[in-house]
Amino acid sequence: MKLGVAQLNLVVGDIAGNTARLLAAARDAHAAGAALLLTPEMSVCGYPAEDLVLRRDFTAACDAAVRQLAAEAPAELALVVGLPERSEDGLFNAAALLRGGRIEAVYRKRHLPNHSVFDEQRVFDSGDAPCVFDCGGVRFGLNICGDIWEPGPATRAMEAGADWLLVPNASPYHLNKERDRYAVARSRQVETGLPIVYANLVGGQDELVFDGASFVLDAEGEIAAQCPAWEEGLFYFDIEGGRCAGPRATLPGEDAAVYDALVLAVRDYVGKNGFNGVHLGLSGGIDSALTLAIAADAIGPERVHAVMMPSDYTASISVEDSRDMVKRLGVKYSEIAIRPIYDAFVGQLAGEFAGRAADTTEENLQARTRGTLLMALSNKFGTLVLTTGNKSEMGTGYATLYGDMAGGFAVLKDVAKTRVYRLANHRNGRSAVIPQRIIDRPPSAELRPDQKDQDSLPPYDVLDAIMAAYVERDLSVADIVAAGHDAATVKKVIRMVDLAEYKRRQAPPGPRITPRNFGKDRRYPITSKYRPDLA
Question: Under a CB-based contact definition with an 8 Å cutoff, are residues 168 and 95 in contact?
Fold first, then answer.
């Protein structure tokens, strides 16, 4: 039999739009000769719908959409769609089997993830019954996403007579996530002996980005078919017994995958939220250069407007390199000197500051002048301001509230500085859009004479390793020092990370590309007296 997977980019809350796309996919799959079409988790309403599912009008609209799909989809096709199902028993993350003009069966997700970016136990009840159905002479069992990450639900499907396991997913991307998925799927295959069809969502949703990369695991636990990452499409598989023939896409390498994730995240955040384009501040540094390249690749250079805002401390090569890069990309470009505005701020504050020496206050005023200009352009032209700070800066607080942190989407928020360089080189491997001098120059905020990042921070390779250990793996000071890091440096970095929590809470959202980001993943109190052992 021929089975289809609809690897779709769906929009949270666009119930009518998602329904239309699912109906079109169902008709295309039927025309292609598929007997069954599997769509992603919560495909009717998008994922994660978060507290929207608590609204009765929302779940009622989802129910009406499923009934519309059942009535209008080809009657001969078995169509599996995801929805929030409200019943007398509770509220469930569910998958409905539609066939013959009716809702034939419903499966309710059993294992509700409640870790990292997931809090499904907050809104959903847990199901407890298997769901197995016949199609094309094959018995299919349903699990949903988190169900296969734990033993039990797959075995219950097998015991109920399943020959194959169908798994609709909304599994967000992070570095090397495909390895985790393969390992989990193989664990369930060993547990049950069942081949598995893993269908995943694709697209950006706020901080999360979904990579697709759906696959089929055969009865021997081997990858029998692989769909591409970062691409929408209908993909078809011919299955017979425990074997499968289908697409064999090659997944991108690590840096390519991260770059593609950031591009898709920007494209969808801009598009799904209805912005006319983007503005960003171009400094002549590596972070803004990479952000500019990502933005141009995401939405096209004609919708990207870079603004160089030089001060007395801006090096001439920063302006030269910015002009060079915008020509290479073909984006819109403006230069707005901030000296007159900055002088006006300082003049108005002179009486209040009398008797106090210049310090970081004056540096931050420069950044805040730039942030004000960018937000004014955003208001006037209906664009989104992309901030350019990276994870190393967000982690240590090496950023200015209402200055370089001012904006709507933080593209590099989960990208450490060392990876920024890797991504810049990766992008230049496609075509040299970032001037090499930008990559080679020591990074600087250019807010005072001869300033360098390493005046305030440890070398980025050291900083990023310590931050990854502390933020992403929760290692203690002793553990990080035992791994070979200088104790004084470890204590300095951890203190900076802890004290900057209030800044990060006010930062824009940004795409998650590591197993633990600043945002949905890491929820620390701002007011807290706890400090790791820094003695």
Answer: yes
**Residue 535, pLDDT score:** 57
Locate the domains of the chain by residue range.
Answer: 2-246, 256-453
The CATH number that domain 2-246 falls under is 3.60.110.10
**Which residues form the catalytic set?**
41, 109, 145
User: What is the CA angle 370-373-377, rounded to 5?
Assistant: 140
For the chain, how far is it from start to end, CA to CA, in angstroms?
66
3-class secondary structure, 201: coil
* Segment 13-24, tens digit of pLDDT: 999 999 999 999
Residues annotated as binding site?
Answer: 171, 177, 281-288, 364, 388, 393, 503
Q: Are the beta carbons of 3 and 196 closer than 8 angstroms?
A: no
Burial status of residue 362 (CB atoms within 10 A of its CB: 0-12, 13-18, 19 or more):
middle
Report which residue type is found at 289: A
Whole-prediction pTM:
0.95
| CA distance to 117, 394, 414, 453, 459, per residue, from 418 (Å) | 24, 14, 12, 13, 10
Give the three-class secondary structure for 109: coil
Each residue's pLDDT tens digit, 405-464? 999 999 999 999 999 999 999 999 999 999 999 999 887 766 777 767 777 789 999 999
Annotated binding site for L-glutamine: 171, 177
CATH class of 256-453: alpha beta
